[in-house]
Protein backbone atom coordinates (compact mmCIF):
# COMPACT_ATOMS: atom_id res chain seq x y z
CA UNK A 1 0.00 0.00 0.00
CA UNK A 2 1.42 3.39 -0.93
CA UNK A 3 0.13 6.93 -1.02
CA UNK A 4 1.00 9.89 -3.17
CA UNK A 5 3.41 12.46 -1.81
CA UNK A 6 2.47 15.00 -4.44
CA UNK A 7 -0.77 16.03 -6.18
CA UNK A 8 -2.34 13.41 -8.38
CA UNK A 9 -4.58 15.64 -10.48
CA UNK A 10 -2.78 18.75 -11.62
CA UNK A 11 -4.43 22.15 -11.29
CA UNK A 12 -3.41 25.63 -12.36
CA UNK A 13 -0.21 27.00 -10.90
CA UNK A 14 -1.98 29.44 -8.59
CA UNK A 15 -4.44 26.91 -7.16
CA UNK A 16 -4.22 24.51 -4.23
CA UNK A 17 -2.77 21.02 -4.32
CA UNK A 18 -5.32 19.62 -1.87
CA UNK A 19 -8.89 20.36 -0.92
CA UNK A 20 -8.27 19.62 2.76
CA UNK A 21 -5.33 18.87 5.05
CA UNK A 22 -5.96 16.93 8.26
CA UNK A 23 -3.40 17.59 11.01
CA UNK A 24 -3.22 14.61 13.35
CA UNK A 25 -3.89 11.10 12.02
CA UNK A 26 -4.96 9.30 15.17
CA UNK A 27 -8.25 7.68 16.11
CA UNK A 28 -10.14 10.79 14.97
CA UNK A 29 -7.96 12.33 12.30
CA UNK A 30 -7.44 9.28 10.09
CA UNK A 31 -11.14 8.32 9.82
CA UNK A 32 -11.92 11.99 9.18
CA UNK A 33 -9.36 12.16 6.39
CA UNK A 34 -10.73 8.95 4.85
CA UNK A 35 -14.30 10.28 5.04
CA UNK A 36 -13.29 13.42 3.14
CA UNK A 37 -11.43 11.37 0.55
CA UNK A 38 -14.37 9.00 0.10
CA UNK A 39 -16.49 12.08 -0.61
CA UNK A 40 -14.22 12.92 -3.54
CA UNK A 41 -11.87 15.48 -1.99
CA UNK A 42 -8.12 15.55 -2.42
CA UNK A 43 -6.73 14.99 1.08
CA UNK A 44 -3.36 15.50 2.74
CA UNK A 45 -2.84 13.80 6.09
CA UNK A 46 -0.24 15.32 8.43
CA UNK A 47 1.31 13.57 11.42
CA UNK A 48 4.64 14.19 13.15
CA UNK A 49 5.11 10.52 14.10
CA UNK A 50 7.02 8.63 11.35
CA UNK A 51 5.92 5.35 12.91
CA UNK A 52 2.28 6.34 12.59
CA UNK A 53 2.76 7.31 8.95
CA UNK A 54 4.44 4.00 8.20
CA UNK A 55 1.61 2.13 9.92
CA UNK A 56 -0.90 4.02 7.77
CA UNK A 57 1.03 3.29 4.58
CA UNK A 58 1.17 -0.40 5.43
CA UNK A 59 -2.44 -0.58 6.63
CA UNK A 60 -1.45 -1.67 10.16
CA UNK A 61 -3.77 0.71 11.97
CA UNK A 62 -6.72 0.23 14.31
CA UNK A 63 -9.76 1.08 12.18
CA UNK A 64 -13.28 -0.13 11.58
CA UNK A 65 -13.63 -2.53 8.65
CA UNK A 66 -15.21 0.08 6.36
CA UNK A 67 -12.39 2.52 7.12
CA UNK A 68 -9.85 -0.19 6.35
CA UNK A 69 -11.56 -0.60 3.00
CA UNK A 70 -11.31 3.12 2.42
CA UNK A 71 -7.65 3.09 3.36
CA UNK A 72 -6.89 0.23 0.97
CA UNK A 73 -8.71 2.07 -1.80
CA UNK A 74 -6.99 5.41 -1.09
CA UNK A 75 -4.67 6.08 -3.99
CA UNK A 76 -5.30 9.11 -6.18
CA UNK A 77 -5.81 12.27 -4.20
CA UNK A 78 -4.65 10.94 -0.82
CA UNK A 79 -1.21 11.65 0.61
CA UNK A 80 0.45 11.65 4.02
CA UNK A 81 3.38 13.69 5.26
CA UNK A 82 5.33 14.53 8.42
CA UNK A 83 5.77 18.16 7.34
CA UNK A 84 3.10 20.43 8.88
CA UNK A 85 4.00 23.31 6.58
CA UNK A 86 2.57 21.30 3.67
CA UNK A 87 -0.90 22.09 5.05
CA UNK A 88 -0.53 25.48 3.37
CA UNK A 89 -1.11 23.67 0.07
CA UNK A 90 -4.71 22.89 1.03
CA UNK A 91 -7.85 25.00 0.73
CA UNK A 92 -8.90 23.92 4.22
CA UNK A 93 -7.20 22.61 7.35
CA UNK A 94 -8.76 20.32 9.97
CA UNK A 95 -6.94 20.03 13.32
CA UNK A 96 -7.48 16.66 15.06
CA UNK A 97 -4.74 16.33 17.67
CA UNK A 98 -4.99 14.75 21.16
CA UNK A 99 -5.94 16.88 24.17
CA UNK A 100 -5.03 14.74 27.20
CA UNK A 101 -4.48 15.69 30.83
CA UNK A 102 -1.28 15.17 32.81
CA UNK A 103 -0.88 13.10 35.94
CA UNK A 104 -2.19 16.03 37.99
CA UNK A 105 -5.35 16.14 35.83
CA UNK A 106 -4.30 19.47 34.31
CA UNK A 107 -4.87 19.92 30.55
CA UNK A 108 -1.82 19.08 28.45
CA UNK A 109 -2.07 21.61 25.62
CA UNK A 110 1.29 20.97 23.96
CA UNK A 111 0.00 19.07 20.93
CA UNK A 112 -2.96 21.40 20.46
CA UNK A 113 -0.94 24.60 20.84
CA UNK A 114 1.74 23.29 18.49
CA UNK A 115 -0.72 22.24 15.79
CA UNK A 116 -2.63 25.54 15.98
CA UNK A 117 0.59 27.58 15.92
CA UNK A 118 1.74 25.70 12.83
CA UNK A 119 -1.61 26.12 11.08
CA UNK A 120 -1.65 29.83 11.86
CA UNK A 121 1.96 30.34 10.79
CA UNK A 122 1.41 28.70 7.40
CA UNK A 123 -2.15 29.88 6.76
CA UNK A 124 -2.82 31.70 3.52
CA UNK A 125 -5.57 33.94 2.26
CA UNK A 126 -8.78 32.07 1.52
CA UNK A 127 -8.12 29.11 3.79
CA UNK A 128 -10.70 27.63 6.13
CA UNK A 129 -9.29 26.29 9.40
CA UNK A 130 -11.45 24.09 11.62
CA UNK A 131 -10.41 22.95 15.08
CA UNK A 132 -12.05 19.67 16.17
CA UNK A 133 -9.95 18.71 19.22
CA UNK A 134 -11.84 18.99 22.51
CA UNK A 135 -10.53 21.89 24.56
CA UNK A 136 -11.47 24.75 26.85
CA UNK A 137 -13.97 27.43 25.88
CA UNK A 138 -12.16 30.14 23.96
CA UNK A 139 -9.36 27.93 22.65
CA UNK A 140 -10.28 28.55 19.00
CA UNK A 141 -10.04 32.30 19.53
CA UNK A 142 -6.86 32.19 21.59
CA UNK A 143 -4.91 29.54 19.67
CA UNK A 144 -6.05 30.29 16.09
CA UNK A 145 -7.87 33.60 15.63
CA UNK A 146 -5.44 35.75 17.59
CA UNK A 147 -2.25 34.42 15.96
CA UNK A 148 -3.85 34.82 12.53
CA UNK A 149 -4.86 38.39 13.35
CA UNK A 150 -1.33 39.08 14.58
CA UNK A 151 -0.09 38.03 11.14
CA UNK A 152 -2.34 40.62 9.57
CA UNK A 153 -4.98 38.17 8.31
CA UNK A 154 -8.57 39.27 8.89
CA UNK A 155 -10.62 36.42 10.36
CA UNK A 156 -13.88 36.18 8.50
CA UNK A 157 -12.53 37.97 5.45
CA UNK A 158 -9.04 36.71 4.63
CA UNK A 159 -9.22 33.41 6.54
CA UNK A 160 -12.14 31.52 8.04
CA UNK A 161 -11.88 29.93 11.49
CA UNK A 162 -14.34 27.64 13.23
CA UNK A 163 -14.73 24.92 15.84
CA UNK A 164 -16.56 21.66 15.12
CA UNK A 165 -16.20 19.00 17.83
CA UNK A 166 -15.25 15.52 16.66
CA UNK A 167 -17.87 12.84 17.15
CA UNK A 168 -16.09 9.62 16.29
CA UNK A 169 -16.60 6.58 18.51
CA UNK A 170 -13.61 4.23 17.99
CA UNK A 171 -14.59 0.59 17.57
CA UNK A 172 -18.28 1.38 17.05
CA UNK A 173 -19.59 0.71 13.53
CA UNK A 174 -23.22 1.49 14.33
CA UNK A 175 -22.81 5.16 13.46
CA UNK A 176 -21.14 5.95 10.12
CA UNK A 177 -19.18 9.19 9.92
CA UNK A 178 -21.60 10.50 7.32
CA UNK A 179 -24.63 9.89 9.54
CA UNK A 180 -23.44 11.65 12.70
CA UNK A 181 -24.51 15.34 12.78
CA UNK A 182 -21.68 17.87 13.02
CA UNK A 183 -21.97 20.93 15.25
CA UNK A 184 -20.29 24.01 13.77
CA UNK A 185 -19.48 27.33 15.41
CA UNK A 186 -17.52 30.03 13.60
CA UNK A 187 -15.60 33.08 14.73
CA UNK A 188 -17.95 35.00 12.44
CA UNK A 189 -21.10 34.01 10.54
CA UNK A 190 -19.06 33.81 7.35
CA UNK A 191 -16.57 31.51 9.10
CA UNK A 192 -19.41 29.23 10.17
CA UNK A 193 -20.77 29.19 6.64
CA UNK A 194 -17.43 28.24 5.14
CA UNK A 195 -16.80 25.52 7.75
CA UNK A 196 -20.30 24.09 7.30
CA UNK A 197 -19.76 23.98 3.56
CA UNK A 198 -16.55 22.03 4.08
CA UNK A 199 -17.92 19.52 6.60
CA UNK A 200 -21.09 19.17 4.58
CA UNK A 201 -19.05 17.55 1.84
CA UNK A 202 -19.28 14.30 3.81
CA UNK A 203 -21.56 14.90 6.81
CA UNK A 204 -25.25 14.51 6.08
CA UNK A 205 -26.45 16.76 8.91
CA UNK A 206 -25.05 20.02 10.25
CA UNK A 207 -26.10 22.07 13.26
CA UNK A 208 -24.70 25.60 13.33
CA UNK A 209 -24.44 27.43 16.65
CA UNK A 210 -23.86 31.12 17.29
CA UNK A 211 -20.14 31.01 18.03
CA UNK A 212 -17.03 28.88 18.26
CA UNK A 213 -17.34 29.12 22.05
CA UNK A 214 -20.83 27.61 21.96
CA UNK A 215 -19.52 24.71 19.89
CA UNK A 216 -16.62 24.20 22.31
CA UNK A 217 -19.01 24.13 25.27
CA UNK A 218 -21.24 21.68 23.40
CA UNK A 219 -18.47 19.09 23.33
CA UNK A 220 -17.65 19.62 26.99
CA UNK A 221 -21.31 19.10 27.88
CA UNK A 222 -21.54 15.90 25.82
CA UNK A 223 -18.65 14.21 27.57
CA UNK A 224 -19.32 15.63 31.02
CA UNK A 225 -22.87 14.26 30.74
CA UNK A 226 -21.40 10.83 30.06
CA UNK A 227 -18.90 11.11 32.91
CA UNK A 228 -21.57 12.02 35.45
CA UNK A 229 -23.81 9.16 34.37
CA UNK A 230 -20.94 6.65 34.40
CA UNK A 231 -20.10 7.68 37.95
CA UNK A 232 -23.78 7.38 38.90
CA UNK A 233 -24.27 3.90 37.44
CA UNK A 234 -21.05 2.68 39.08
CA UNK A 235 -22.52 3.76 42.43
CA UNK A 236 -25.74 1.93 41.60
CA UNK A 237 -23.68 -1.18 40.81
CA UNK A 238 -22.06 -1.03 44.24
CA UNK A 239 -25.42 -0.46 45.91
CA UNK A 240 -27.04 -3.30 43.97
CA UNK A 241 -24.33 -5.74 45.01
CA UNK A 242 -24.80 -4.75 48.64
CA UNK A 243 -28.55 -5.33 48.28
CA UNK A 244 -27.94 -8.63 46.44
CA UNK A 245 -29.44 -7.38 43.18
CA UNK A 246 -28.25 -7.77 39.58
CA UNK A 247 -27.53 -4.20 38.45
CA UNK A 248 -27.70 -5.18 34.78
CA UNK A 249 -31.24 -6.47 35.26
CA UNK A 250 -32.17 -3.22 36.98
CA UNK A 251 -30.66 -1.08 34.20
CA UNK A 252 -32.37 -3.04 31.45
CA UNK A 253 -35.70 -2.75 33.28
CA UNK A 254 -35.28 1.01 33.66
CA UNK A 255 -34.41 1.26 29.96
CA UNK A 256 -37.90 0.06 29.02
CA UNK A 257 -39.15 3.56 29.90
CA UNK A 258 -39.44 5.36 26.55
CA UNK A 259 -38.66 8.83 27.92
CA UNK A 260 -36.55 10.50 30.59
CA UNK A 261 -33.98 7.73 30.91
CA UNK A 262 -30.84 6.71 29.04
CA UNK A 263 -29.06 3.46 29.96
CA UNK A 264 -25.43 3.56 31.08
CA UNK A 265 -23.59 0.45 32.25
CA UNK A 266 -21.01 0.10 35.03
CA UNK A 267 -17.45 -1.07 34.61
CA UNK A 268 -13.88 -0.95 35.94
CA UNK A 269 -13.44 2.74 35.09
CA UNK A 270 -13.37 5.01 32.07
CA UNK A 271 -10.62 5.29 29.48
CA UNK A 272 -9.75 7.06 26.27
CA UNK A 273 -9.19 10.79 25.89
CA UNK A 274 -12.86 11.73 26.31
CA UNK A 275 -14.49 10.77 29.59
CA UNK A 276 -11.43 10.77 31.92
CA UNK A 277 -9.97 13.93 30.33
CA UNK A 278 -12.43 16.32 28.69
CA UNK A 279 -14.40 17.42 31.79
CA UNK A 280 -11.11 18.44 33.40
CA UNK A 281 -10.71 21.10 30.70
CA UNK A 282 -13.92 22.67 31.96
CA UNK A 283 -13.01 22.29 35.64
CA UNK A 284 -9.55 23.75 34.98
CA UNK A 285 -10.98 26.77 33.21
CA UNK A 286 -13.67 27.46 35.82
CA UNK A 287 -11.13 27.47 38.65
CA UNK A 288 -9.83 30.76 37.27
CA UNK A 289 -13.15 32.41 38.13
CA UNK A 290 -13.60 30.33 41.29
CA UNK A 291 -16.82 28.77 40.05
CA UNK A 292 -17.50 25.59 41.98
CA UNK A 293 -19.08 22.68 40.08
CA UNK A 294 -19.43 20.04 42.82
CA UNK A 295 -21.41 17.52 40.79
CA UNK A 296 -18.86 17.38 37.96
CA UNK A 297 -15.96 17.37 40.41
CA UNK A 298 -17.45 14.49 42.40
CA UNK A 299 -18.11 12.48 39.24
CA UNK A 300 -14.55 12.90 37.99
CA UNK A 301 -13.18 11.98 41.41
CA UNK A 302 -15.35 8.84 41.48
CA UNK A 303 -14.16 7.84 37.98
CA UNK A 304 -10.52 8.34 39.00
CA UNK A 305 -11.02 6.12 42.06
CA UNK A 306 -12.70 3.24 40.19
CA UNK A 307 -9.52 1.27 39.27
CA UNK A 308 -8.54 1.31 42.93
CA UNK A 309 -11.97 -0.06 43.71
CA UNK A 310 -11.28 -3.00 41.38
CA UNK A 311 -8.08 -3.84 43.25
CA UNK A 312 -9.74 -3.58 46.65
CA UNK A 313 -12.54 -5.84 45.44
CA UNK A 314 -9.94 -8.34 44.19
CA UNK A 315 -8.31 -8.27 47.61
CA UNK A 316 -11.68 -8.89 49.27
CA UNK A 317 -12.62 -11.74 46.93
CA UNK A 318 -9.31 -13.51 47.51
CA UNK A 319 -9.54 -12.89 51.25
CA UNK A 320 -12.91 -14.63 51.26
CA UNK A 321 -11.08 -17.64 49.84
CA UNK A 322 -8.48 -17.55 52.60
CA UNK A 323 -5.60 -15.88 50.78
CA UNK A 324 -4.21 -12.42 50.08
CA UNK A 325 -3.13 -10.55 46.98
CA UNK A 326 0.55 -10.99 47.75
CA UNK A 327 1.78 -13.94 45.70
CA UNK A 328 -1.58 -14.46 44.02
CA UNK A 329 -1.68 -15.29 40.31
CA UNK A 330 -4.04 -12.79 38.63
CA UNK A 331 -5.10 -12.93 34.99
CA UNK A 332 -6.78 -9.87 33.44
CA UNK A 333 -9.04 -10.44 30.43
CA UNK A 334 -8.93 -7.46 28.09
CA UNK A 335 -6.87 -4.33 28.74
CA UNK A 336 -7.99 -1.90 26.01
CA UNK A 337 -10.09 0.97 27.31
CA UNK A 338 -13.17 -0.23 25.41
CA UNK A 339 -14.23 -3.29 23.38
CA UNK A 340 -13.01 -3.89 19.82
CA UNK A 341 -10.10 -1.43 19.87
CA UNK A 342 -6.40 -1.68 20.65
CA UNK A 343 -6.40 1.74 22.31
CA UNK A 344 -4.78 1.86 25.75
CA UNK A 345 -5.11 5.60 26.38
CA UNK A 346 -6.18 6.13 29.99
CA UNK A 347 -7.27 2.49 30.20
CA UNK A 348 -8.18 1.57 33.79
CA UNK A 349 -6.34 -1.71 33.25
CA UNK A 350 -2.97 0.05 33.35
CA UNK A 351 -3.57 1.44 36.84
CA UNK A 352 -5.15 -1.82 37.97
CA UNK A 353 -2.04 -3.76 36.89
CA UNK A 354 0.29 -1.34 38.67
CA UNK A 355 -1.77 -1.51 41.86
CA UNK A 356 -1.93 -5.31 41.77
CA UNK A 357 1.83 -5.52 41.26
CA UNK A 358 2.40 -3.09 44.13
CA UNK A 359 0.31 -5.39 46.32
CA UNK A 360 2.62 -8.30 45.46
CA UNK A 361 0.43 -10.13 42.95
CA UNK A 362 1.77 -11.88 39.87
CA UNK A 363 -0.11 -10.33 36.95
CA UNK A 364 -0.72 -11.62 33.43
CA UNK A 365 -3.16 -10.42 30.81
CA UNK A 366 -4.86 -11.69 27.67
CA UNK A 367 -6.12 -9.31 24.98
CA UNK A 368 -6.39 -10.30 21.29
CA UNK A 369 -6.18 -6.63 20.28
CA UNK A 370 -3.21 -5.60 22.46
CA UNK A 371 -0.10 -7.77 22.01
CA UNK A 372 1.99 -5.82 24.50
CA UNK A 373 1.78 -2.89 26.90
CA UNK A 374 3.76 -0.66 29.24
CA UNK A 375 2.08 0.58 32.41
CA UNK A 376 2.55 4.04 33.87
CA UNK A 377 4.87 2.41 36.39
CA UNK A 378 7.07 1.19 33.54
CA UNK A 379 6.16 -2.50 33.70
CA UNK A 380 6.26 -4.22 30.31
CA UNK A 381 3.90 -7.13 29.69
CA UNK A 382 2.92 -9.22 26.69
CA UNK A 383 -0.44 -10.84 26.12
CA UNK A 384 -0.53 -14.52 27.08
CA UNK A 385 -2.85 -17.36 26.22
CA UNK A 386 -5.67 -17.53 28.77
CA UNK A 387 -5.46 -20.13 31.48
CA UNK A 388 -6.40 -20.77 35.07
CA UNK A 389 -5.29 -18.40 37.81
CA UNK A 390 -6.01 -17.71 41.46
CA UNK A 391 -8.23 -14.90 40.22
CA UNK A 392 -9.41 -13.92 36.74
CA UNK A 393 -10.54 -10.31 36.30
CA UNK A 394 -12.80 -9.59 33.32
CA UNK A 395 -11.93 -6.03 32.30
CA UNK A 396 -12.75 -5.44 28.59
CA UNK A 397 -15.52 -7.53 26.97
CA UNK A 398 -14.11 -7.90 23.45
CA UNK A 399 -16.29 -10.06 21.23
CA UNK A 400 -13.26 -12.27 20.61
CA UNK A 401 -12.96 -13.09 24.32
CA UNK A 402 -14.38 -16.58 24.72
CA UNK A 403 -14.74 -17.70 28.31
CA UNK A 404 -15.34 -21.29 27.28
CA UNK A 405 -11.91 -22.25 28.60
CA UNK A 406 -12.83 -21.21 32.15
CA UNK A 407 -13.50 -24.25 34.30
CA UNK A 408 -16.49 -24.09 36.61
CA UNK A 409 -14.49 -23.62 39.80
CA UNK A 410 -12.42 -20.74 38.40
CA UNK A 411 -12.81 -17.63 40.54
CA UNK A 412 -13.92 -14.75 38.26
CA UNK A 413 -14.18 -11.08 39.26
CA UNK A 414 -16.47 -9.60 36.63
CA UNK A 415 -15.72 -5.89 36.31
CA UNK A 416 -17.70 -5.77 33.05
CA UNK A 417 -21.01 -7.03 34.49
CA UNK A 418 -21.39 -9.06 31.27
CA UNK A 419 -20.62 -12.63 32.39
CA UNK A 420 -23.33 -13.59 34.85
CA UNK A 421 -24.43 -17.17 35.43
CA UNK A 422 -21.05 -18.71 36.26
CA UNK A 423 -20.74 -20.65 39.51
CA UNK A 424 -17.79 -18.69 40.95
CA UNK A 425 -18.42 -15.35 39.27
CA UNK A 426 -18.57 -12.33 41.54
CA UNK A 427 -19.51 -8.87 40.38
CA UNK A 428 -17.31 -5.87 40.97
Plain-language structure description:
The protein is α/β, with parallel strands linked by helices. The protein folds into two domains: 18-210, Rossmann fold; 308-427, 3-Layer(aba) Sandwich (Rossmann fold). It is 35% helix and 14% strand. The chain is built from eleven helices and 15 strands. The strands form three sheets. Strands 3-2-1-4-5-6-7-8 form an eight-stranded mixed sheet, with helices on both faces. Helix 4 runs parallel beside helix 5 and helix 7 packs across helix 9 (278-287).
Based on CA atoms alone, the radius of gyration comes out at: 23 Å
First-last Cα distance:
45 Å
Question: What's the CATH H-level superfamily name of the largest domain?
Answer: NAD(P)-binding Rossmann-like Domain
What is the mean pLDDT?
93
Give me the side-by-side strand order of the main sheet. 3-2-1-4-5-6-7-8
The proportion of residues forming helix, as a percent range, comes to: 25-40%
The major pleated sheet works out as: 8 strands, mixed
The domain tally reads 2
Q: Report the CATH architecture of the largest domain.
A: 3-Layer(aba) Sandwich
> How many helical stretches?
11
Beta-strand portion reads 5-15%
Query: In sequence order, what are the helices and strands, one letter per element?
Result: EHEHHEEHEHEEHEHHHHEHEEEEEE
Unreliable parts: 5-14
The CATH class assignment of the largest domain is Alpha Beta
CATH topology of the largest domain: Rossmann fold
Structural class by SSE content: alpha/beta
Amino acid sequence: MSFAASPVRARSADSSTYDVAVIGLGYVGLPTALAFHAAGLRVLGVDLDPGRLEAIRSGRVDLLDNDHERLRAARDGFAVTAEPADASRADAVIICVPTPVNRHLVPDLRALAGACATAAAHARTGQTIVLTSTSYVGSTKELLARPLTARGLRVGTDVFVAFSPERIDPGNDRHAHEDVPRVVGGMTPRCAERAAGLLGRYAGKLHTVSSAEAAEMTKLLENTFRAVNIALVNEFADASRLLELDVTEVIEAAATKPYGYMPFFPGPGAGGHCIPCDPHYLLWQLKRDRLDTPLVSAAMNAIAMRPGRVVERARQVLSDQGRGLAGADVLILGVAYKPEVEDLRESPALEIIDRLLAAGARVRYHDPHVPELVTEGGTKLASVEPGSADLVIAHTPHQALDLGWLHEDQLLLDATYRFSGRARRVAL
